[in-house]
Design brief:
heterotetramer, A: alpha/beta, Rossmann fold, 2 domains, 7-stranded mixed sheet, 5-stranded mixed sheet, 17% strand, globular, B: alpha/beta, 6-stranded parallel sheet, two-stranded antiparallel ribbon, 12 helices, binds thiamine diphosphate, binds magnesium ion
Chain lengths: 370, 329, 370, 329
């Protein structure tokens, strides 16, 4: 993909890449362990912890009570004592419970004591979108974590990057919130067999273009790619797609350089729009690449509503490739015109588009596990 | 349990019969939903209470319509037992506009405030403090309403459970904590999460009395709840009831799951042999409260109601797009 | 101030206006009550709950255990049963503990059940900046709350608006996070004696200008005014200052209209910069008033670090009027030039400026209560 | 307490003397800081432990340098008792570069990881689960280190306290929970926050044993802690020690505050009459462990050390601006 050297290895799925990252991290460093609700159960967090459990057993892969805040504090303490805990949340929605330990403690312990200690914890935060998960099981909370100094926020979109970034997170000395979108779990791609890390804070250009930049994150990268392909085929619009890979630190240079070239920006995110991650990318560019901008900056993100479960409402609720297409069209064809709010986009039109591009990714309706 | 139960005397016959009707209805709902679910028209995660129905029925039979009830992800039984409409439940599962939450909430977020079923949260332990808040309001308003929250054995692991016991005890609030201890949280055995299986004792150091009852024995639950409700109405403060019971189906979804390996078929069968519906039916039959004929009449009626509800749900319209924005501020 | 009719009444302080709002709300509606750690103690949350406690007693103004999450759930339940609880946090930092009840429950209860119920709770969230409060006692977390749909976020800057908006929050049917900056508590201003409400979601132009807009919130409004006065006196630059008053809902129209007039925007916030409230205001303008913009959008906010306690570091850490002045100068005089990061601004220069403008507001060093 | 204490025999004389030295040092630190604070050169909120010193000393005397200790907003005593440097503490209060946290942390965030004092949090209950985490690490690493967390009586109201008891008990972790129950949280009496004054019992239903000791009796604390530490080192799991004690000064700041009205002067005086330093001093004098001369020598030495520390702090440079960015990622 893009600037990364494309390894020629076998293809594996996103969830398998996570699994592999776990196993190899644990092989390389005996201080690494995994904890969380269900990590040792027969389903092993959508399969991602099964292999590690099989290999390293209950001592290094263990279940916890349902007590998110305390178990986070426990991970912090273990980290202070030299361990490298990986904590897993099957839904990031449950992490509201542990905001105190994450934000008042993990995030602050290093700086608050003048740099005396480090807290190397990795917190896997899964976004559960799909099959009517609804308001408390499908949130995408990266913006909250990105706002709090002292936390890194990583959000990979491909099997290749998820493995390299997870290994880097586990190896690094900072607390990392590692956000995984469940819809990516079945996506396959080339992944080197051996251990490797990717630098946290570096994004990647995944498709070159000159007319507009789409800066995207996680699952939205795939929507962006679909949109780019369609825009090229249909209207000859050349979109550059950036996979941000991490929100904190953010690869400012990559974004700014791209916008300096294209003069136009659409930001695509999986979270809510207002006060969301997309706002930061927009504000960055409005501050530091303003003079290159030829059109308003568009954001494609969730409307400011909690997620409904009904299938009809879900379809309207979630933006997709079509919303990115229409956002790009607006700024490329007639810069400066008011954008239509996402949720006003018509369901019918959307469905047609989704059928059209469904071959571009292995996406299919999620039917469980839940 | 199969002997004549002295407690039967103290319970009016119509209450006994109503409870039977309700437990049969809840069982039917669970089984029919399990049958229909593989059609993939109910597009939300569904947690069935099959095997645990007695708890909802025994507790709610002691409540008035204006008492408050809250629940968790596994909430169908509690919604129905408190008087929520069956067809609006089923419509909600199908994501329809006529659902009890307009198709927005889904299986884990049923509500029927018109009968005091104030909602369910899919966040473990989420409604424990909220239920206490309604109890605080009752006291402030000088009413003798009682609040009940139903939750699973994992919910006691969340700190909010203890925080709530502390405050409820401090202020003597009329709230009853009903734990359905089905031994598992998802695939995790209780003893993998808690040092010992003694949930009913967890209130002691907060001065919240607790009892442990057979969660498959409707009458035992009814009696325990009655005592707790009476205490609450008299202003004597909160109470904790642990009901030992068992979930027959998988944690989420319609199937059996002993093949997964986290629990055995033997364990399941042991519990199925102690089916809460059969146990109760037998007591009523033996004591002449119900006849065989009543049983089949009720079965038939409940079956028809269920089919009617499914029809209603399937035929109801989906919410339209504007709905999504309707309740936003 | 600005567009509001300026009442001719007596002047009272910000904390007294809060106290008055409490008392009058409780007089008007017997369902209103106040709960929180220390609300009934001899110091009464910096005096704000003393009068209410004196008048209404322990039944309607009561202390709670230190259990933020549960007490929030308790408030939600009470609200569902018809009460109108006001919950007080002497520091908003403690609210990480109650994010689950706030964000998964209070915020969602209305929409999640298809509008069946409402949760009229008001949560007073005090920002504790001052006297070395440090990393866990001086955060300003409005951006987190603003991101989550279903919560209103109000953040008044004056005695007049704090009374009217607090009464509106208590009267309204939505959960409101009511953020108060402790440095404002001693600020005096005209406040009508009787009960009144101000609409949540309406900002105010507090100083008219044509060269640049400074959109500010809470305590930053005062810095903005100081900056505007200085810029006018020294360089003849005419700054329009907007007091946003609430972040959710946000008065988009007011901001957009001002920027359409001035063509330049600086956003001044009391929280961290990255993924903060200032990013949303910037993104809004970059999307909806792009064609009117003559210069990059600047943000004046906290650097992405947790707050230090040492007095020297605190002085550098907190931006002030001088940072706003320099942000405005950059975009008015030489649009498009790179901005200097705030924390690089020199301490000496800053101190000089602060002395210069100290007469403009009653600001003085905070010496307790803590 | 004023009689010859049999427990004295079992404690080596040098330990008894070291504990005396430490309690005198901690008292001196508190009093001198209280004197200096009104100069307004220490620009951060300061929570003094005057009156509660015995707890820190009695517990930490049982710990090795490589054991872990955590604390809360009221942390000076624990920092010193675990071996943290006095002058770096004072420098931290003055916001100096030479402070134990480089002037970034302030009074509520002392740390000295080089002697196992792993930090303090100003969030009530914040370090309770973190301390448990270090205990988990010790077990995983096969070491026999023990972890201790000190907290106030309000911390047990936060759910994380119970969540931590549950997990620590489940895994038999070597962590000791030391509650300094000084009857108040800020201005709020314990019984305004908890149904009953029985903190040591709160672990029972989690199978965490607890004891309640006189928090002004250093020897009693020493003995209780010894037992708890031994248990932990033997792998027998967590322990809860409640120490009943009293804060002499205001919650935060250097003054007395009985005039505020939330507690009486009589109550204060009753507790001051049971000064933990005097009680212990008397025992040592009566038992010939210390002479009057030792007492004055120690007083003098401690006084000098304190003055040296103050001088060091005052003369130390402030951190420079670049410092602010140093430990950021
Ligand atoms: C805060 C939180 N953490 C984790 C989960 C995931 N989760 C859903 S159900 C469940 C198990 C609940 O077990 P229990 O309380 O015993 O209820 P049961 O399902 O057995 O009825 C878990 C852990 C959740 N919903 N909320
Ligand atoms: C989570 C949280 N809530 C509230 C506070 C405010 N606060 C600071 S100290 C304190 C009282 C603590 O009392 P206690 O635990 O008994 O300790 P003590 O001060 O008596 O030593 C409170 C409520 C806080 N620091 N953290
Ligand atoms: Mg269970
Ligand atoms: Mg105390």
């Amino acid at each position: 993909m893009g600037k990364d050297k494309k390894p020629k290895e076998r293809e594996i799925k996103y969830w398998q890449a996570i699994s592999e990252a776990h196993v190899q991290s644990m092989e390389r460093n005996e201080r690494v362990f995994i904890m969380g609700i269900g990590v040792d159960d027969p389903k092993g967090i959508f399969g991602t912890t099964l292999e590690a459990y099989k290999k390293f057993g209950k001592k290094r892969v263990f279940d916890t009570p349902v007590a998110e805040n305390t178990m986070t504090g426990c991970a912090i303490g273990a980290a202070l004592a030299g361990m490298r805990p990986v904590m897993v949340h099957a839904r990031n929605d449950f992490m509201y419970y542990c905001m105190d330990q994450l934000c008042n403690h993990a995030a602050k312990w290093h700086h608050m004591f003048g740099g005396l200690m480090t807290v190397p914890i990795t917190v896997r935060a899964i976004v559960g979108r799909g099959w009517g998960q609804g308001s408390q099981h499908s949130q995408s909370l990266q913006a909250l974590f990105s706002h709090v100094p002292g936390l890194k926020v990583v959000m990979p979109s491909t099997p290749y990057s998820v493995k390299g970034l997870l290994m880097a997170s586990i190896e690094g000395d900072s607390p990392v919130i590692f956000v995984e979108h469940r819809r990516l779990y079945d996506y396959a791609g080339p992944v080197p067999e051996g251990p490797y890390t990717l630098p946290i804070g570096k994004g990647a250009v995944v498709r070159m273009g000159k007319d507009a930049t789409v800066a995207a994150i996680s699952y939205a990268v795939w929507d962006a790619i679909k949109a780019a392909v369609a825009l090229k085929e249909e209207g000859g619009i050349d979109v550059e797609v950036i996979d941000l890979r991490s929100l904190k630190p953010l690869d400012e240079e990559l974004i700014l350089n791209s916008v300096k070239k294209t003069g136009r920006l659409v930001v695509a995110d999986t979270g809510w729009k207002s006060y969301g991650a997309s706002a930061e990318i927009s504000a960055l560019v409005a501050e530091k690449a303003f003079e290159y901008l030829k059109a308003p900056i568009q954001r494609v993100a969730l409307p400011d509503i909690s997620a409904p479960t009904s299938v009809t409402l879900e379809k309207v609720f979630y933006p997709g490739a079509m919303d990115i297409i229409s956002a790009v069209r607006q700024i490329v064809q007639k810069g400066g015109e008011k954008s239509v709010p996402l949720f006003e986009s018509s369901l019918t039109a959307k469905t047609v588009y989704e059928r059209e591009f469904s071959s571009l990714a292995q996406e299919k309706e999620f039917l469980g596990p839940f | 349990m199969k002997k004549k139960d002295p407690s039967l005397k103290s319970i009016p016959a119509n209450v006994l019969r109503d409870m039977y009707y309700m437990i049969v209805k809840i069982r039917k709902e669970g089984e029919r939903i399990a049958e229909l679910y593989p059609e993939q028209e109910m597009r939300c995660p569904i947690h069935l209470s099959i095997g645990q129905e007695a708890v909802a029925v025994g507790v709610c039979a002691n409540l008035r319509k204006d008492d408050y009830v809250f629940s968790s992800h596994r909430c169908h039984a509690h919604y129905l037992a408190k008087g929520g409409e069956l067809r609006r439940l089923v419509a909600e599962l199908y994501g329809k506009k006529t659902g009890c939450a307009g198709g927005v909430g889904g299986s884990m977020h049923l509500a029927a405030p018109e009968v005091g079923f104030m909602g369910a949260s899919s966040i473990v332990a989420g409604t424990i403090p909220i239920a206490m808040g309604t109890a605080l309001a009752s006291v402030m308003q000088g009413s003798d309403r009682v609040s009940v929250t139903f939750f699973g054995d994992a919910a006691v692991e969340e700190g909010t459970f203890h925080e709530t016991l502390n405050f409820a005890s401090l202020k003597s609030l009329p709230v009853i904590f009903v734990c359905e201890n089905n031994l598992y949280a998802t695939h995790s055995h209780l003893l993998a999460r808690q040092p010992t299986n003694n949930i009913f004792e967890r209130g002691e150091s907060h001065r919240v009395p607790g009892v442990c009852v057979d969660g498959n024995d409707l009458l035992a639950i009814y009696q325990a709840a009655k005592e707790a409700v009476d205490r609450c109405r008299r202003g004597q403060g909160p109470f904790l009831i642990e009901c030992k019971t068992y979930r027959w189906r998988e944690h989420v979804g319609p199937y059996y799951d002993y093949d997964l390996g986290y629990r055995s078929k033997e364990e399941l069968e042991k519990w199925m042999a102690r089916c809460p519906v059969s146990i109760y039916e037998k007591v009523l039959l033996e004591n002449g409260i119900l006849s065989r004929k009543d049983v089949s009449t009720i079965a038939k009626e409940v079956g028809e109601k269920m089919e009617e509800a499914v029809r209603f749900a399937k035929e109801s319209p989906f919410p339209d797009e504007a709905e999504l924005l309707k309740d936003v501020y």
